[in-house]
User: Which sequence fits this backbone?
C-alpha cells in the first residue's frame, strides 16, 4: 500500500452535480476521468502523478460501482499498450505516467496506437517533471506528440480548466480518431484549488460489451499496406479534423484582443505566471483583465493556422512564451506566418531564455523587454518590480559560504543505507569498482557521504548499463545496482536475462525493500504486505533463478552490515564464473513505521508491553572525528556542540527521530569504529519478569555506582 | 498587518525539508484562510525532495472577490513579491534570502533558529559547521521584520512537530488578517494530534525573541576540596587567561587517574609557562591538548565512563525514558588485539602483540564485536572489572608509549615560542588530529607524525605558521590522506 493514504480524499470522487470539489490538481483529474465515463485506467507511478494512481488504488469500491477497470501497469509501455482497447471499441481509456521518462518507455506502444488511430477516446496524462525539484533529464514531451501525431493539451493551471481539458480531451480524441496527451506541470498537479463537480458516469459501452462482441478491423493494424494508409490518414483526415474541432469548441482562448497592435501567444500552462508578470508591470489586473492581447494555447499541438493568422494579422509583433527547447512552437509560428506572408515579427527565445524553467521572474523579465520594444509608454519605469530590472540582486557572499545544497537522501532507518555502508567497507579492502546505478531511492548513493555510482541509464537499466564491461582480460568485476521496482519494470529481462545470455561475469545487487519506494511506496509483485486487490509475494529470487542465474545470494536483513560486506566480497572474488546476483531485503522504513507506529502506540495505551529501541552516542567518549557519519549519513545521526570545555570539534549525537534500525551499532562493529554508541531499549509497561530480573541487577549496580562516586568525590565542587 | 491596498493576494512561501511537515503547515493555512472567507491556493514541488531534501511550499490568499470574478493566482514565488516567508531551519532561511524571496520592503521572515546540519557539515573530520551568527544577521538585514526563535525545541518540549510551533509564531506575529482563535480552530479541524499541536502552537505564539545565543558549551565547574591545593597553585603560578582551561585539565586528569597525575600535568606545563610570557595563547592551547592527550581513551577509560550513575541518568534523559519505563543500555564494543595489549603491563602487552599463540588466545575473547548490556548484572560487572584496572594504567603499554610521544611534542614548544610565536601556536594545536579509536586513531597518529616530521623543514621560514596550519587542515580534508600527502610534497619543495 502506498506511503500516503487517500481514504479521505476518495470520498471527494463521489461528489455529484453542482457540489464543490476542493483538493489537489491531480485528484481533480481523477474525478474528471470518472465524470467522463472512462472504462479503464492504467499507468505507472512517479512524481508528479503518483497521487492519481494512489487515489484510484484506495477508491476500488467506487471503481467497481462504475464498472471501471484500473491497473497498476508493469511499466509505462504496458500502460500505453493498454490503450489498444480503444482501437476497435468505443471505450474511453486513460493512462498516466511521469514525463518525459515514462513517455520514453511508452513510445513504442504510443507510436503504434497513434498510427492506427482510435475509436474510443484515448487520453495520455503526462506529469511533467521539469524545472525546480525535478529528478530527471530536462526534455519536452512535445516532441512525442509531434513525431507520432498525437494532440497535446496544455490547459491553464487552475482546476476548472484542467477538468475541462480532460473532458475535451476525450471528445477531441473521438472526433479525430487520435490519442490525446494531456500535459500537466508539477505545480499544477499539486495545486490546491476548487471546481464544481458533475455526476460520475458509468460508460455506456462497457468492457463486457467489447469482450462479448469482439471486433477486428485489419485497417487499424500497423502492417503494410495499412501503415502507409495511416500516414496519409493522419495528414488528410485527422489533422484537419482536429483543427476544425479545436476552433469550433474554442478550446484555445483569446483575452484582451484588440487592446494593442502587438500580442502574446502562450502555452496554457504558463498562463498564471504570465498574468502575474503582466500584473506586476501594471498591464493586467489580478483577475486577468489584460491590456495586452493574449492568445492562450490550451492545445499546443497542433497549432491552428487560421487562429494564428487571425491573431497575428494587423499586429506589429507577437511574443511566443514557450517553455523548454527546442522552440517547436516558435518555429511553427514563423512557418505559418511566412507562408501566409503576414509580416508580424515573432519574438520568443530572443527575449526569453532558450532553456530552463519559465518562472515568474523569468517571464516578467521577458515581458518587460518585449513591451519596452513595442510600447514603452505602457510601462511606468518608476514602479517596475525589482525582478523586471536588468541588474541582478547583489549576491551575498556570506550566503554562498553558509548555505549548502540540501539534496534528498536516505531517510532515517532506511534499509538501503547499510548496503552502501557495506560497499564503502568493501571499497576500503578491494579498492574502487565501476558501479552502474539505477533509478530509485538507491540513486542517492551517488551523493555524499557514499559517492558510489558512475552512471544511471534509466529505470531498471542498472545492469544493462554495465553490459559492455564483459571481458576476460581482467578478473575485476563491475557492480550494478537495481531496485525491486526497476527489476519488475524491465530489469528482469533487460538486465538479468541479458547478463545470463551474454555470459556476464559481473555482479548485480538488487535492493528489495518491498515497494516502489521512491515514487511513494506503491506495491509491486514482490511486495510482502497484504494487498487485497493485487497478487503479491512473488520472490525476486525465484524470477532470477528462473532466467538462469546460478550464483544467487539472498540477504534477509540489510542492516547486517558485516553480512552484506562479506557477501559482496565473496561475489567479487569468487572463482565461479557467470552472472552473480545478490538480493538484499529489508522493508522500506518509511512504510514500516507508518504501519507499525500507530500499532505500538495503541498497544502501549492498552497497557501491553512495548519495546522502543533507539541509539545514542556518549558525548564523553566521542572524540568528534565523525567517521561514523561518513559511513552512514543518516538524518538522525548528526552533530552537536561538544559539552567538554577542552574539546573544540562537535560530537556526534543521535536525534530522537532515531527508530533504532541498528545500522549505527552494526557499522561501529563492522568498521571497528568507536565504543561510543549505545542502543537503548525503552520498555513501556514492563512485565513482572522484566522487573524481577532488573531488581537484583539494579541493587548491585547502585552499590557499585556509589563506590565509584566515592572515588570521584571532591574533584569538583 | 500586511497592507493589501490593491486587490492583490497575500503571498506566502514555506521553506522546509522533506518529512518536516511543511505540507501540514500549508494545509492549516489554507483551511484557516478559507474559513475566514479568503480564496486560497497552495502548491509545492515535493517529488524526491520528500526524502529529506529542501523544498518550497507556496501559497496565495486572496480576500473577498467581486461576484463572478476569480483571481489568477501564481504557482511560484516571484523574488521581491513575497509577503511572508516561513523557514523551518536557519540554513533554509538563508536559502530563502539567497533566492531573493526575502526583501526589506515587504517580507516578514519567521525562522526557527535551530540548525539541521547539512551533510557537508556533519561529515567534516573536524568542525565543518557554518556560521549561524552570520546567517541570522543576514536574515535580519534582508527582512522587513524577523521573527526568530528555536521553534524546534518548543516542538520537542511539547512532543509535537515544528509546523505547530511555527504556526503559533505566525499567529503571535500578527501579520495575517486573522485572529489567534481562528488559527487554533484550524488545528482542531485538522484533527490529528490536536492536543500536542495546540500546546506547541501556544508556546510558539508566546515565544520571546532570543536575546543572545546561549552556547551549550558548559563552563568549567569549581574544583572540589581534593583539588583545592592545585587550584591555588594555578591561581598563583599561571595567568588568569589560562585558568579555566587548567582547572578543566586538572579535574579531567584527577577523574581519569589521580590527583598526582593532575599535578604532573601542571609540572609538564612549567617550561611553556616560563617561555610564554605575555600572550598566553600557546600556553592555553598546549594546556588544552596536553590534558586531552594525557587522558587518552583506552578501554579502562571507556569502561569507567560507561558505568557511572550520572551516565545512566544522562542516557535516560537523552532517550526520553519516563520513570515508569524500564531502560536497558547496550554498548557496542569492539576491543581489538591492540586495545587489549594497550592496557596490559608494558612487557606483557608487547609479548601479546608479538606472540602468535597469545594473539590467538586473546582473539577468542575479543575478535568480533560484542554487545554488552551495561544494565544487566553480568554486563555491568565486565565493564566494572575493566574500569578497576585503572591503578595499573601507569605501567601499561600504551601509557608508556603515550608519555614518550607527549614529551616529544612538548619539548620544542618553549624554543618555538622564542623563534616564531605564531608557529608555536599552530604547533601546539596539532594534537587535535589525534582522535577516534582503532583505524581512525591510527590514521590520526600517522598524520600527526607526518606533520611533526615536516616541522624541521618549516622552522625559520616566514610562512611557517600558515604552512603548518594548512598541513593540519589538509589532514582533516579527507580520510585517505590524499590532501595531506600533496601538501607535504609542496612543503618539501
Assistant:
Amino acid at each position: 500500500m502506498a506511503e500516503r493514504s487517500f481514504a479521505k480524499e476518495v470520498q471527494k470522487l463521489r461528489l455529484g452535480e453542482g457540489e464543490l470539489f476542493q483538493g489537489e490538481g491531480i485528484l481533480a483529474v481523477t474525478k474528471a476521468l470518472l465524470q467522463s465515463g472512462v472504462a479503464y485506467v492504467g499507468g505507472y507511478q512517479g512524481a508528479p502523478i503518483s497521487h492519481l494512481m494512489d487515489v484510484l488504488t484506495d477508491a476500488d469500491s467506487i471503481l467497481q460501482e462504475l464498472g471501471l477497470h484500473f491497473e497498476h501497469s508493469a511499466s509505462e509501455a504496458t500502460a500505453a499498450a493498454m490503450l489498444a482497447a480503444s482501437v476497435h471499441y468505443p471505450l474511453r481509456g486513460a493512462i498516466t505516467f511521469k514525463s518525459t521518462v515514462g513517455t520514453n518507455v511508452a513510445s513504442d506502444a504510443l507510436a503504434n496506437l497513434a498510427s492506427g488511430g482510435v475509436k474510443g477516446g484515448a487520453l495520455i496524462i503526462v506529469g511533467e517533471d521539469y524545472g525546480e525539484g525535478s529528478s530527471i533529464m530536462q526534455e519536452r514531451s512535445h516532441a512525442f506528440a509531434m513525431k507520432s501525431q498525437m494532440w497535446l493539451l496544455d490547459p491553464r493551471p487552475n482546476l476548472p480548466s484542467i477538468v475541462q481539458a480532460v473532458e475535451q480531451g476525450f471528445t477531441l480524441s473521438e472526433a479525430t480518431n487520435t490519442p490525446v496527451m494531456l500535459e500537466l506541470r508539477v505545480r499544477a498537479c499539486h495545486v490546491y484549488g476548487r471546481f464544481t463537480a458533475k455526476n460520475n458516469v458509468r460508460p455506456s459501452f462497457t468492457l463486457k460489451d467489447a469482450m462479448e462482441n469482439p471486433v477486428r478491423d485489419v485497417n487499424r493494424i500497423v502492417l503494410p499496406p495499412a501503415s502507409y494508409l495511416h500516414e496519409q490518414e493522419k495528414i488528410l483526415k485527422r489533422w484537419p479534423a482536429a483543427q476544425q474541432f479545436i476552433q469550433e469548441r474554442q478550446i484555445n482562448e483569446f483575452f484582451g484582443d484588440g487592446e494593442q497592435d502587438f500580442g502574446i501567444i502562450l502555452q496554457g500552462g504558463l498562463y498564471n505566471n504570465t498574468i502575474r508578470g503582466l500584473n506586476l508591470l501594471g498591464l493586467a489586473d489580478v483577475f486577468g483583465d489584460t491590456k495586452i492581447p493574449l492568445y492562450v494555447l490550451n492545445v499546443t499541438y497542433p497549432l491552428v493556422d487560421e487562429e494564428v493568422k487571425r491573431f497575428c494579422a494587423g499586429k506589429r509583433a507577437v511574443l511566443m512564451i514557450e517553455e523548454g527547447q527546442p522552440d517547436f512552437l516558435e518555429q511553427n509560428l514563423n512557418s505559418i506566418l511566412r507562408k501566409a506572408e503576414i509580416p508580424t515579427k515573432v519574438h520568443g527565445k530572443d527575449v526569453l531564455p532558450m532553456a530552463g524553467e519559465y518562472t515568474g521572474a523569468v517571464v516578467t523579465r521577458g515581458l518587460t523587454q518585449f513591451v519596452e520594444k513595442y510600447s514603452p509608454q505602457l510601462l511606468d519605469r518608476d514602479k517596475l518590480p525589482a525582478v523586471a530590472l536588468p541588474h541582478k540582486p547583489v549576491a551575498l557572499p556570506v550566503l554562498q559560504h553558509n548555505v549548502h545544497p540540501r539534496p534528498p537522501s536516505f531517510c532515517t532507518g532506511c534499509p538501503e543505507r547499510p548496503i552502501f555502508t557495506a560497499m564503502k567497507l568493501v571499497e576500503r579492502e578491494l579498492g574502487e569498482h565501476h558501479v552502474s546505478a539505477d533509478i530509485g531511492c538507491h540513486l542517492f548513493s551517488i551523493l555524499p557521504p557514499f559517492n558510489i555510482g558512475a552512471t544511471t541509464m534509466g529505470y531498471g537499466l542498472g545492469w544493462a548499463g554495465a553490459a559492455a564491461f564483459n571481458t576476460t582480460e581482467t578478473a575485476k568485476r563491475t557492480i550494478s545496482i537495481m531496485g525491486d521496482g526497476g527489476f519488475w519494470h524491465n530489469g528482469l529481462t533487460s538486465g538479468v536475462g541479458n547478463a545470463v545470455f551474454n555470459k556476464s561475469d559481473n555482479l548485480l545487487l538488487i535492493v528489495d525493500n518491498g515497494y516502489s519506494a521512491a515514487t511513494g511506496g506503491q506495491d509491486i509483485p514482490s511486495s510482502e504486505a497484504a494487498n487485497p486487490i493485487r497478487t503479491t509475494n512473488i520472490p525476486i529470487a525465484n524470477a532470477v533463478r528462473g532466467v538462469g542465474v546460478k550464483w544467487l545470494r539472498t540477504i534477509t536483513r540489510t542492516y547486517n552490515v558485516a553480512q552484506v560486506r562479506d557477501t559482496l566480497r565473496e561475489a567479487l572474488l569468487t572463482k565461479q564464473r557467470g552472472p552473480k546476483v545478490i538480493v538484499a531485503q529489508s522493508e522500506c522504513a518509511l512504510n514500516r513505521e507508518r504501519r507499525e507506529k500507530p500499532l505500538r502506540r495503541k498497544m502501549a495505551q492498552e497497557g501491553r508491553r512495548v519495546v522502543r529501541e533507539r541509539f545514542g552516542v556518549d558525548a564523553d567518549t566521542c572524540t568528534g572525528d565523525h567517521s561514523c557519519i561518513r559511513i552512514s549519513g543518516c538524518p538522525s545521526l548528526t552533530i552537536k556542540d561538544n559539552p567538554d570545555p577542552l574539546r573544540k570539534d562537535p560530537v556526534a549525537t543521535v536525534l530522537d527521530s532515531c527508530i533504532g534500525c541498528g545500522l549505527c551499532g552494526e557499522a561501529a562493529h563492522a568498521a571497528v569504529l568507536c565504543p561510543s554508541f549505545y542502543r537503548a531499549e525503552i520498555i513501556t509497561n514492563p512485565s513482572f519478569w522484566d522487573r524481577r530480573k532488573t531488581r537484583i541487577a539494579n541493587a548491585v549496580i547502585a552499590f557499585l555506582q556509589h563506590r565509584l562516586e566515592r572515588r570521584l568525590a571532591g574533584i569538583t565542587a | 498587518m500586511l497592507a493589501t491596498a490593491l486587490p492583490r493576494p497575500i503571498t506566502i512561501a514555506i521553506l522546509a525539508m522533506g518529512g518536516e511537515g511543511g505540507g501540514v503547515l500549508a494545509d492549516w493555512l489554507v483551511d484557516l484562510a478559507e474559513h475566514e472567507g479568503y480564496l486560497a491556493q497552495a502548491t509545492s514541488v515535493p517529488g524526491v525532495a520528500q526524502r529529506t531534501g529542501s523544498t518550497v511550499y507556496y501559497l496565495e490568499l486572496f480576500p473577498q472577490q467581486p461576484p463572478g470574478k476569480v483571481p489568477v493566482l501564481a504557482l511560484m514565488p516571484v523574488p521581491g513579491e513575497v509577503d511572508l516567508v516561513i523557514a523551518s531551519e536557519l540554513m533554509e532561511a538563508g536559502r530563502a534570502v539567497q533566492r531573493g524571496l526575502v526583501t526589506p520592503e515587504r517580507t516578514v521572515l519567521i525562522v526557527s533558529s535551530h540548525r539541521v546540519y547539512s551533510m557537508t557539515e556533519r561529515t567534516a573530520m573536524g568542525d565543518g559547521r557554518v556560521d549561524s551568527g552570520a546567517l541570522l544577521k543576514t536574515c535580519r538585514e534582508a527582512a522587513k521584520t524577523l521573527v526568530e526563535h528555536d521553534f524546534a525545541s518548543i516542538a520537542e518540549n511539547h512532543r509535537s512537530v515544528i509546523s505547530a510551533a511555527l504556526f503559533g509564531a505566525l499567529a503571535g506575529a500578527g501579520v495575517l488578517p486573522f485572529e489567534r482563535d481562528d488559527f487554533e480552530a484550524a488545528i482542531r479541524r485538522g484533527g490529528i494530534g490536536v492536543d500536542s499541536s495546540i500546546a506547541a502552537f501556544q508556546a510558539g505564539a508566546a515565544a520571546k525573541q532570543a536575546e543572545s545565543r546561549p552556547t551549550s558549551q558548559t563552563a568549567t565547574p569549581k574544583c572540589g576540596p581534593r583539588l583545592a591545593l592545585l587550584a591555588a597553585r594555578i591561581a598563583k603560578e599561571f595567568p588568569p587567561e589560562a585558568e579555566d582551561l587548567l582547572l578543566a585539565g586538572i579535574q579531567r586528569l584527577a577523574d581519569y587517574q589521580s590527583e598526582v597525575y593532575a599535578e604532573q600535568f601542571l609540572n609538564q606545563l612549567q617550561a611553556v609557562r616560563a617561555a610564554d610570557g605575555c600572550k598566553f595563547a600557546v600556553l592555553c592551547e598546549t594546556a588544552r591538548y596536553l590534558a586531552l592527550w594525557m587522558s587518552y581513551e583506552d578501554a579502562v577509560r571507556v569502561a569507567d565512563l560507561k558505568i557511572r550513575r550520572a551516565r545512566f541518568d544522562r542516557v535516560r534523559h537523552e532517550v526520553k525514558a519516563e520513570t515508569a519505563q524500564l531502560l536497558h543500555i547496550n554498548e557496542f564494543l569492539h576491543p581489538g588485539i591492540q586495545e587489549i595489549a594497550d592496557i596490559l603491563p608494558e612487557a606483557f602487552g608487547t609479548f601479546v602483540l608479538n606472540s602468535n599463540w597469545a594473539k590467538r588466545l586473546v582473539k577468542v575473547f575479543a575478535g568480533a564485536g560484542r554487545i554488552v548490556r551495561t544494565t544487566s548484572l553480568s554486563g555491568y560487572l565486565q565493564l566494572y572489572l575493566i574500569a578497576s584496572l585503572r591503578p595499573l594504567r601507569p605501567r601499561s603499554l600504551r601509557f608508556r608509549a603515550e608519555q614518550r610521544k607527549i614529551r616529544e611534542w612538548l619539548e620544542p614548544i618553549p624554543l618555538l615560542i622564542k623563534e616564531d610565536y605564531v608557529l608555536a601556536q599552530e604547533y601546539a594545536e596539532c594534537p587535535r588530529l589525534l582522535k577516534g579509536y582503532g583505524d581512525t586513531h591510527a590514521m590520526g597518529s600517522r598524520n600527526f607524525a607526518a606533520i611533526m616530521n615536516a616541522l624541521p623543514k618549516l622552522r625559520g621560514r616566514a610562512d611557517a605558521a600558515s604552512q603548518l596550519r594548512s598541513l593540519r587542515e589538509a589532514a582533516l580534508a579527507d580520510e585517505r590522506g590524499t590532501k595531506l600527502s600533496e601538501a607535504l610534497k609542496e612543503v618539501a619543495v
Notes: The mean pLDDT of chain A is 96. Chain A touches chain B through 123 residues (CB under 8 Å).
